[in-house]
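Note to self: user wants both folds in one dump. Writing first protein now.
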Amino acid sequence: MINDETKRKLREMAMDPLIKALENQEAGGDTYLVMSFDERLNLAVDECYTQKHVERAKRLIQGAKFRYPSADVNTMYYENRSINRNEILALANCSYILKNTNLIINGYTGCGKTHLACALGKEACRRLYRVRYFRMPELLEMLNIAVQTGYNLSKTVKKLANYDLLIIDEWLADNPSDQEVKYLLEIFEKRYDTHPTIFCTQRKVSDWHIRLGGGIMADAILDRIVHNSITIDTGETNMREFLVAHPTLA
């Protein structure tokens, strides 16, 4: 049994989970008494590691600012929808992040684009990736404020570029200005082949070029997004209306 002084030292070293693990073993009685010191130490370390992992994942989920923090790929409704359960569960292992593959989630209003993106983002947080969700108007406003207030724009762009996974909702719902297109190019240039982005949009990829101004910068942005991407079509079913009509599935 560890004494109070040892507990104090462990707390000073921010090792509270180890104290809890050892106390759990003490309360476990004969189950742990028959184990060797090495076996008990290994179990305590495993318990601490798991606890630390869970706590960090929770912090990452909170920091991601998901629109739907309760979204989850395991409880999502898949029946009678265009999305494929097996495809989504395969994406949930986050291999697309390791491959720096962008995801383009396309569909009509209310068909669950944002919910799906948040669910995939949460899985990334559980695997300890740094994720951030933005609506496109919020993203552009942040960049414009940085310019207007004299804040270092390059620092803002760098921050956005460094997230392991960036989720942009309402992508190209409105046409960005020439200056905003320039901001976007800077972000995607820095994220290119380094970190993936999830785009939630009602706009088909074929419409993106003209909505981005139709010039050289539009070409450059598309090149950095589309060439290494997976498109997910969420179909036409309005999930808001469907779940209102079927409340037991919500």
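First done. Writing the second protein, which came from a different request thread.
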Amino acid sequence: MLHCEKCGVSLAGSLDLCPLCQGVLTGAPEEDVYPVLPEENHFHWLTARLAGFFSVSVLAVCAAVNYCFPAGGLWFLFVAAGLASAWLLIGVALWKRRNPMKAIVWLLAVMSILALVWDWRTGFKSWSVNFVLPCLIPCMQIAVVVAARLLRLRPADYLHYLCVCILAGFLPLILLLGGRLWMPYPSVVCVGVSAVALSALVLFRGTALKEELIRRIHL
């Protein structure tokens, strides 16, 4: 047991200094009662601060150049919107970082919404529904499978997230049937990949998927 002569307290563990007065402790050290907490990761905070500084610097430079050469309109607002979109995606990823599967689904939703908003604000040339969404959804399906393999997750931990991404892959079918797309090939590929993925999910993981759905909807 350790003892502080100045404070008159006895302490368990293997401390070098008294936590009250920072004086030298006497006595025999013992095994620590509580685990040692990991130190704060300063590298992540430094990276975030540098990224924030870089974003503000880029925006300030673009705003200054746009002010000096205003003939092209307020194009620096597009830079600001792009930086805001990037930070939004980073925030979502950090918010859901403890559950990578949920983070992938959230990123799929947020990126889809951002693509639609950008397309709408730039005159809606429909590039978002013709190219971005049909390419994004299969990529997220692959991301779920790869992440599940790398993290060695149980089927119950990722099947419902994979099911959400697969079902999202059939949304372009609505636009295809409605004749709303001027470039149908990416959507055809997206629907085809989703159909193959769904059949593989049902055939090879059907029992586990059924049990997980029953558990989640309390049937």
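Dump finished. Worth passing along: The helical segments are 42-68, 76-95, 100-121, 127-151, 155-168, 171-177, 185-217.
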